[in-house]
Amino acid sequence: MNTLEYKDFYDKVGKRIGWDFSKMKCVSDGLPWDFYNEVTKVTKKSDLLLDIGTGGGEAILSIADSALLLVGIDHSTGMMETATKNAVSSGIPNVRFLQMDAEHLYFPKHFFQVVSSRHSCFYPNEIAKVLAPGGIFLTQQVSENDKGNIKEAFGRGQAFGKKNGTLKNGYITELREAGFTDIKAFEGNVTEYYQTPEDLLFLLKHTPIVPNFGETEDDFQILEQLIRDNQTDKGIMTNSSRFMIIARK
């Protein structure tokens, strides 16, 4: 996918479900961390928190009691529509959602004590601009070897063919150049089991793991073979590979 195709795809998913994948049945041992739990560990009740690429806002609404004010931004109109609905139905008073591109953060300098970004693009210089001295930035991103057997089967996919660690090392370099210090990186790779073919199909239709999935009949033939090759007693096997970076300004 190019940038415009990805944004269009993301917007459509946002209008349908936000980032709520709760109905999809998948079993795994889980990563050695929970990202938004890590965010709450470094957040004080008096802090202002910015969440970049907040999607439907499900995550920061769930940790609303950890900070004085939480602001979620997203470039997608569809995601913002879902986030606004979620905020209204929750009745939580200290969470705000704004449509904004991560490349241009229109906030006062040094406004936030904590900035988070899960599975979303971010720009270290922009974060450094709005983060207070001593503030903390946390991000979790998808590693290149995520869903390796799926991408191999289709011969294409998110970061397909790229060396594992390329994205993580690039982000660390950019953060250093933006003035961040005490940069720590963590990696996790776990086995996942999707319980039914419908669950795996839901994943492929609502994420960019395999770009333009389903546009040709061949995709469904490949999917059928993939399921046969990876079916186990626990479900259809693949992997989830992530990295997390925590950096202080």
From TrEMBL:
<keyword id="KW-0808">Transferase</keyword>
<dbReference type="InterPro" id="IPR041698">
    <property type="entry name" value="Methyltransf_25"/>
</dbReference>
<keyword id="KW-0489">Methyltransferase</keyword>
<feature type="domain" description="Methyltransferase">
    <location>
        <begin position="50"/>
        <end position="135"/>
    </location>
</feature>
<protein>
    <submittedName>
        <fullName>Methyltransferase domain-containing protein</fullName>
    </submittedName>
</protein>
<dbReference type="GO" id="GO:0008168">
    <property type="term" value="F:methyltransferase activity"/>
</dbReference>
<dbReference type="Pfam" id="PF13649">
    <property type="entry name" value="Methyltransf_25"/>
</dbReference>
<dbReference type="InterPro" id="IPR029063">
    <property type="entry name" value="SAM-dependent_MTases_sf"/>
</dbReference>
<dbReference type="GO" id="GO:0032259">
    <property type="term" value="P:methylation"/>
</dbReference>
<dbReference type="InterPro" id="IPR052939">
    <property type="entry name" value="23S_rRNA_MeTrnsfrase_RlmA"/>
</dbReference>
